[in-house]
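User: Second chain of the day. Same drill as before.
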Amino acid sequence: IETWNPAAKKIFGYEADEVIGQNVRILMPEPFFSQHDSYLSKYLSTGQAKIIGIGREVLGRRKDGSVFPMDLAISEFHMTGRRLFTGIVRDITDRKRYEDSLVESEERFRLVADAAPVMIWGAGANKQCNYFNRTWLDFTGRPAEDELGMGWLEGIHPDDRETVRRIFDEAFDARREFRVEYRFKSHAGRYSWLLSHGVPRYTPNGDFIGHLGSCVDITERKASEKKQAELQDELELRSEEHTSELQSHSFI
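Assistant: Same format as last time:
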């Protein structure tokens, strides 16, 4: 090590005079510590690189012995006849914790969603569906790979498909909540009426990452509404007939 800036001191905990002149492997945990010299020798003789000129996530070791994740980018250059390497390090501990928390949160969500009595779906910002819960798959009788992306549209009644796709696209483009009713084919081959409700999702930084939604079976409600409408039509027809009959009589 020949140079050591303040940011390196903050990340690794070493003062400059503690590392200048030391082998850079002092900043590496095992197995990288033991492998470093042989790796560098192999690179210098063959040009085969694992990190140099590539960049990747690796582990670093602080002065206190603690190990942490970091982004490492190493570039090679020549100056005054010498072959030198510059390393750019970024501590990604907070990012990795956030990613781990997302994974844990996602696992909890899937456990809860699969146990839910309603159909649940998820889609990314690209409008492609990337998740369906167990209730959805049991209802359709189709494997998840057939539903993913835009495959789920195949289950929608042909007369409803264009309307659903339009509402879906408009909601994603506007980043807004939506509700839509449509007929959807079950595993038994029959169409049921569903009410789909989708809400936009955002990261803590405010970036739009798609929609999360649910579907509930409203077939009985639609049948009831149809019967009520038919009854209302019948009552109106009878009223008109009764009125006509009354008008046909003369009263003294």
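The mean pLDDT is 86.

User: Great, on to the next one.
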